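Quarterly update from the structural biology core.
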Amino acid sequence: MSERSPGAVGVEEPSQPWPETAPGTPTERREQPRRQEAAGTWARWELAAYLVIVVAALVLRLWGLGDKAFHHDESLHASYAWYLYDGRGYRHDPMMHGPFQFFGTALMFQLFGDSDFTARLLYALYGTALVVLPVFLRDLLGRYGALVTSLLLAVSPTMLYFSRFARNDILMAVWALALVTLVWRYLRRQRVRHLVLGSAVLAFAFSTKETAYILTAVLGSYLLVAARRDVVPWLLGRKALRDFAPPGQVLVLLATLSLPLGAGAASILQKPLGLELANPDYTRAPVGIPLGTGLYVAFLLVVGLLMAGIGLGLRWRPRVWLACAAAFATVWVLLYTSFFTNFWGGLASGLWQSVGYWVVQQDVARGGQPWYYYLVVGLNYEFLPLLMGLVAMGFYLKRGDEFSRFLVFWAVGSFAFYTYAAEKMPWLLVNVALPFIVLAGKFLGDLLARQPWLAERSPVAQRALVPEGGDAGAVGMAGVPEPSGVDAAPEGSLAPAAESRVAEPGPGATKERYGRRGVAGAVARLSWPALAFAGMLVLLVALAGRGLGLVLRADVQSSVGLLLTTGLVVAALLGACGYLLGKVPRGKRGPLAGVGVAAIMLALTVQASLRSAYANADVPVDMLVYTQTSPEIPQLVREIRRLGAETGKGERLKVIVDTADGFAWPWVWYLRDFPTVSYLCLGSDPGCQGMTQAPDADVVLVDAPNQASASRFLEAYGPPIRYKHRWWFPESYRGLNVKTVAEAVRQRQSWCRVLEYFLDRRFDLSIGSVDAYAYFPSSFSPAPLKQRDQERTRC
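Predicted structure, tokenized:
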């Protein structure tokens, strides 16, 4: 053991487990090096599987990336990044969250040019990086668990859709999973570099979006519970900070780095205190800044928390804390001050206004969604991780190891925080779904490790499973297969401990049979009853689901034959599934059934992903598509450019855009290269100039409510084209309560509507929209707009 001071930097400290556990028996002590050796091995099929998943994830995220109409928020983010790229600079505005995405997108423009594709490229690349991250948790998730987690992240409807969307939520998912990975690497190995890297990642998270405060709160709460045996004695003056165990060390670092940034949260108390700590009125001053006496209170609070953080950090491990603080401050200060071009303004907005602005927004409650919003949206898209995650919680709370219990805490904590928050939006589902995906991935990995067709092991793993003097050929299909934790089963895994894994060799379970590699070895390992059961289960659910839909849509009196036929076939398939399941070894039946059900849900997940990401990407029949720009706007953009080409004016074409109702966006992004575009408010509201004479413009875009008053000045133009500017999903799920749900459960038509929407995204209510009119010269013939609408339910 090194005698080096715990505060030393630059020399790796010896790895030691957390919590400290020593093998209790001679057998365990002999097997530990073998388990570690097995855990470090990679199978060729495993590397190939990761390659396929990552390449598929990248293709899914890049294919047609620029085709979808730009959402209002996307156009804001892309436009301000383009201003930065164009040399106009950047100043942090908390309304658009942190600065990182603007510098990242500006870099994409610098490298690849500005386009609809490159405006979303940063997010697509981060979405792909998210799929790779479970590799670094492989020793905790297990060989199969890490692989399944990567697969779930690749095909998750929420992760895929918002990887193709210019918002920072997918960036936050990467920072969150990276931070969790580094924290747990430190807890297991106590390497200083993990703390330094974690500090930099934390700074990037705070520089990306204010949801970093929720991430910090959830992670800090877990560490506080885990370090309670250090924290309580320290509060009583009986223990020094430098004597904390790894969870307490990470807690000290997390708290000291984030304390000053959390000062703005005091704005929550501004009403009881009678202070203006976060201004709510934009007509007086920027929203979220302190005013009057509140300005001095805010200054003293920030300075006080900064000094407290520095003092605690230096009392803990001075050199380590200074290295971590330097990594954190470098990232945070550079981004918020726009690389020192807005130093004091960036520091002030980053330290206080970034929190103060969103504290004020809590009263606004943007979206006005019910408390059960994430249940409704989540069960339509992330049903696999949510349902499997709930099952995993029941198992891991009883038999889980420290990491699996953390995943449960992370999932429950995130769901609770985002459910409590006043603002609920579909993109925030990214933060709710992520821990459930990791939790479900680990659980399904443990189930997969018990499947009959995964009995073959690497030679290293076989040595780890066979007692000294035993026969490696005895480990066959009847033995317990690959556990979580790669080849070694940690506490809480579904796989039994290593010493109990040598089972009676089944028929043909010989070294010759299971030692073969390639296709012959794969065929030899197959458990045909298990595979046949999985196939029958898929057929059963597919037929039952579609048959149920037919029955629900038909009159009972006229569907007796259909009911009878469907019932007979389903009964036959149930019998076949039961028979095949009986052919599988008893201890593997439950895991096999669980994996079969998960496979069916995975197929439905892929269907939901492709539908929302491609078919309905900008059509609000999917609940992930929120107040979306209509696909008719990109069509009009093409017509405007065609007019410029035909008249020879090109981008010098004169365009007037009515800014009433926020209609300037996304036109600001689409017409960024048109120097003669004018943005005028043509309504009658205060501050609007209206239209008082015929405009000097080639194209005029008018908000529908202002069209009647403006039309008399636009008679020289061709017939106006009415188009949808924004449209939205009809939120019929609002107002649910126990009574309405109980009534709906008893109605066949309600079940039919639910099934129709879940499987085919059909519903009866009309999509809402706000419209506008486009005026082109009478000599120009614009192409007719292609209309998109929802499919009506057949119930």
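Strands lie at 628-629, 655-658, 678-680, 699-703, 721-728, 768-775.
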